[in-house]
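ok trying again, last paste got cut off:
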Amino acid sequence: MARIIVVEDEADLRDDLVEYLDRCGFEVGGASRGAELDRLLEAGPADVIVLDINLPDEDGFSVARRVRASSSAAIIMLTARSGLIDRVIGLELGADVYLVKPVDFREVEAQIKALMRRMQKGAAPQSATEQPAGIGVSLPGPAPALAPADSRKVWVFDDIEWRIQPPTGSAVPLTATEYKFLSLLVAAPGEAVSRQDISVTLTGRDWDPYSRSIDSLVRRLRIKVEERSGCALPVQAVHGVGYAFVGPVVTSAVEDSAD
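nice, full thing came through this time. structure:
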């Protein structure tokens, strides 16, 4: 049974959402502030955290940053803040979903179930004979099989473990926003993905030509990959369009098969 924690300082909303999710079959706990969430996480890991931004002791952005650094729980931000900047900040800090109040509880339930399906797929065990499917290259075995890609001088985008493996050096874990961004680019290596498509995928909004959030994301991601792996990330700006992944890349994934 999935464990859900609802972090919301408005008692009536918190209690109603906890009760609704409990009726949906989840194990649900409620917290009114960041400190209470910490105590619940000490008692046991959560699968999904529904997180308000406006909390009395610590803002939800700070909580999300702490949770993302120490927990594998998915994060759904549920807040009255509807501004683009708040959405971008929330997603860049690691939120998987950003919902704006008022929200139908059925949408929260649907988002939780979608996140659980993705997480369960990623945790599905593989037998010794199973092989993850790649694009252009067959990669034997589960996570340790990333090593054969080194000899082929290709990057491996692991969309199960959410990491990018350079041809040499260590694999680099990705936040939800970094994962979504690279997913767009590696789906069509060498082809430019427009800033509009990137913005819609990351924020659900049209691209604002005055915003530098996408460029900031790319800059931080390049620094992160190079510092952790020693390799320069082959993501290149395409003038007037957007960004492209210009290096050889394959995708390591476990895909459902009818066979």
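cool. Residues 123-152, 254-259 have pLDDT under 50 and may be disordered. The longest helix spans residues 105-123.
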